[in-house]
Amino acid sequence: MTEQRRIDGKRLIIASHNKGKIREMHFLLGGLAIELVTAGELGLPEPVEDGTTFVENARIKALAAARASGEVALSDDSGLCVDALDGRPGVYTADWAGPNRDWSMAMRLVEEELFKVGASKPEQRQARFVSLLCLAWPDGHTQEYLGERQGTLVWPPRSGPIAYGYDPVFVPDGEDRTFGEMTAEEKHGSIWQAPGPLSHRARSVKALVEGAFPVGIRP
Ligand code: IMP
């Protein structure tokens, strides 16, 4: 088995320029005794994500930030995998929103693809959100943590004020509201208390904290 490290510093670089993702990382990691600094705040460039898997893209982002800053960095590569579309958009989830990151267009594209394959019933519209976290050290060492959440895609989109990405079309299993209609507490659950981690990202973050954070940092 490859070496598993724990973070020993007091600060962690969040290797992302995505506002929605950064907000969620602050929500999920904010209660822990570690300072979070984003790649944007340090003026680090955004690397090209030309991997073909979540792991490859997460490694590209985390390693670029760790090498440029000389500190441990954390990235999240995530996406929506739709069963009836053979797992698409998957690693290309952000790309479906085009260069202007138009999420309304991206959600409509998914809906059009579902229409083409005749997926109209809820059981034909199953999907899962994936969050793959990568922790990278400046010497090139990496560790990965996976979180997933299963659900059903709905149309038209339904959302409240803080929805991000594809939140407005995803109803997680066991709920009748979309991620977009939920508060952050409802979407993510709790890493440490009941009901436990509910979102894909809360699940990957729990695995990360348990696997790589100093023991004393956990509540
Ligand atoms: P990437 O990880 O930068 O390639 O982007 C993944 C994309 O997946 C994000 O920009 C979002 O559009 C989408 N995504 C990932 N997680 C979520 C989520 O929790 N809600 C809604 N969309 C998400």
Describe the protein's architecture and organization:
There is one protein chain. The protein has helices at residues 19-29, 54-69, 103-116, 184-188, 200-212; strands spanning 11-14, 35-38, 73-82, 126-136, 142-153, 170-172. By secondary structure, the protein is α/β, with parallel strands linked by helices. The chain has a single domain (11-217), classed as Maf protein. It has a six-stranded mixed β-sheet with strand order 2-1-3-4-5-6. The chain is globular. The mean pLDDT is 94. Inosinic acid is lined by residues 18, 77-79, 93-94, 129, 164-167, 179, 201.
Distance from first to last alpha carbon? 28 Å
Categorize the overall geometry.
Answer: globular
Biggest β-sheet strands, sense, barrel: 6 strands, mixed
Remind me, CATH topology? Answer: Maf protein
Proportion of helical residues: 25-40%
Contiguous uncertain segments of 5+ residues = none
CATH architecture identity = Alpha-Beta Complex
Task: Return the CATH class.
Answer: Alpha Beta
Estimated radius of gyration: 17 Å
The average pLDDT is 94
Tally of alpha and pi helices: 5
- Give the structural class: alpha/beta
The domain tally reads 1
Instruction: Summarize the helix and strand pattern as letters.
Output: EHEHEHEEEHH
- Major beta sheet, strand line-up: 2-1-3-4-5-6
Bound molecules: inosinic acid
